[in-house]
Amino acid sequence: MAVRTPGDYYVSDVYSEPVKLANAKLQLVNSSPDPPAIADESSIDGVPIVSTNPPNIAIKTSNCVCDKSESQQPLERQRTIDTLQSTFVPNKPLFNDDVIIFLITPTYTRPTQMPDMTRLGQTLRLVPNVFWIVVEDAHNQSKAVENLLRRTMIPYVHLLGPRPPTHMDQRSGRGVSNRLKAFEWLRANYGGTNQKGVIYFADDDNAYDVRLFDEMRDTQIVSMFPVGLISTLGLSTPIVNHKTGKIIGFHDPFIGRRKFAVDMAGFAVNLQFFLQSKKATMPYKVGYEEDYFLKSLDVKIWQLEPKAKNCTEVLVWHTKTKPGDKPNHNMMIKVTNYNETNLPSLYQNVMET
Amino acid sequence: MAVRTPGDYYVSDVYSEPVKLANAKLQLVNSSPDPPAIADESSIDGVPIVSTNPPNIAIKTSNCVCDKSESQQPLERQRTIDTLQSTFVPNKPLFNDDVIIFLITPTYTRPTQMPDMTRLGQTLRLVPNVFWIVVEDAHNQSKAVENLLRRTMIPYVHLLGPRPPTHMDQRSGRGVSNRLKAFEWLRANYGGTNQKGVIYFADDDNAYDVRLFDEMRDTQIVSMFPVGLISTLGLSTPIVNHKTGKIIGFHDPFIGRRKFAVDMAGFAVNLQFFLQSKKATMPYKVGYEEDYFLKSLDVKIWQLEPKAKNCTEVLVWHTKTKPGDKPNHNMMIKVTNYNETNLPSLYQNVMET
């Protein structure tokens, strides 16, 4: 297992040009006739570095916001943003002094994948200091997913975690192989480091209020919060005694033999607590993934940290996007003069995987 | 009909403290132990002004990004953003010199409303210079929607456009009364002005790639683009002759008697063109809303402007969120010591409408 210390190569590279970074000035120009700024993709040892500029921002070099040339511009024409650019290396771990939220998102190719991943990626652009671990249930990386990750401009790793042939049955369920792959990557890249972090399972079709990420950021061991739209009860939530502020049980449509009757989106785990729990794993067992994972962490009910105002607010929903149809090529080619139109290119772009 | 000229009260108020605005400095502190900055809600004639600070940003006053005290902070601890704050008055029109995108969103109370509106609102936070016209199919404003609009921090008006009793049948469809109300508001507030703008129908459950809004921003008359996940064809798109770059027809699962066989999410209209088309309206006729509206604008096919790389890219999807159940209070109150737990408050918060 590779062991890295924080900043062993990442931070030092960023610091190699501190003056350039400190002086970078971004000027946001609405409806500019110029094309949008293209990400500066230089490289370290052949690995591209992507600068995370806010959208629609053209770069202009200047040191001071109080330059007269700018303050004379009318308010409606521009908002001026000075910022230190944050940089990341795609598919490499991120190290810094703050708490990083590691979002583990299992995904697979289907007609609703791009809209679901687009919504999630855009949501994450509003969250500071996140790292997106996207794991496909596939043997080859999807080009569409890779392009989306590059566009979204948040630090990420794009992994493959195909479901093994031994677990293709209905009782095994989706997403476990993906999450196990993410565990492996986290242990390989953060084991032996003291990076502060929180792990959260962010399925690609749920809906997240960005305030959720503020809530989970100070998770010490395992934090929990309500999830909306869970089956017949309409939600799943820890039960909190409002005198003690402690979690005492669970209100969930499916209790079964579960000690922790929670949804996958209903809890977050401290990174170092996870890394120290060497036996932490997730079983291929539909309905029991969360419970067995939490049991494998050896967390006690009294240690659970209720969030979202003592579990009185819903900030995440277990939404499901209705399945949709793929573009129908047989119908498309019936269009008169098909080859002289946009349709061949459109079909090719939409079917890109 | 009230006629306003640009800036008749809005811009002048903003300019009343230009120095304060120009010098406002925002410092983004990740994982700060301090509580997040609260929106500055002062008021003009009793109407609150909301400052649109980026999320998790604490305000610090300083004039220059090159202050030594800041450049000595480590990179991981802070990103420094200097910006002119943009301000808006809730429920009042916005005027400025740039193109404003007016998004018309019909909505109604249902268990999936908050997750859908949350995703859309968060997407719009990434788009510069938008104005969100949210119209409820209801006789009373939903408190949950109002709170969401205030949180989202983008300029908005919150209107009511209930479906009239004469159009409650299945052939009338949802959303028309809402959009007609939005037309009325636009004419009342922008008629007689020369505000530059684009009108777009953004239903609350679709998925939008933020690049779509860049595409539509320079709409001169009516622009069009493909929409994904439309029924059995998997998409709806204008057909573009790639030699002339002109729209020559439509590829859509439902052609019927439609001249413009497009989805509601597949086109945008120039604000001034709409305002000058005095007869522009939308019929209560399921399947024909888009077609009749475009016909009422008296736009010609040769005038249509193809966007999204000549209609070869899908940047918006007609996603549908599966309906969900409301929280089940009868089951909740069976929990032992119900009144001593978080459940009563959680139920009250989730059921807030």
Automatic annotation (TrEMBL), chains A, B:
Reactions catalysed according to its record: 3-O-(beta-D-galactosyl-(1->3)-beta-D-galactosyl-(1->4)-beta-D-xylosyl)-L-seryl-[protein] + UDP-alpha-D-glucuronate = 3-O-(beta-D-GlcA-(1->3)-beta-D-Gal-(1->3)-beta-D-Gal-(1->4)-beta-D-Xyl)-L-seryl-[protein] + UDP + H(+)
GO biological process: one example: chondroitin sulfate proteoglycan biosynthetic process
Chief location category: Golgi
GO function terms (MF aspect): galactosylgalactosylxylosylprotein 3-beta-glucuronosyltransferase activity; metal ion binding
Organism name: Blomia tropicalis
Protein name from the UniProt record: Galactosylgalactosylxylosylprotein 3-beta-glucuronosyltransferase
SUPFAM superfamilies per record: Nucleotide-diphospho-sugar transferases
Entry keyword set: Glycoprotein, Golgi apparatus, Manganese, Membrane, Metal-binding, Signal-anchor, Transferase, Transmembrane, Transmembrane helix
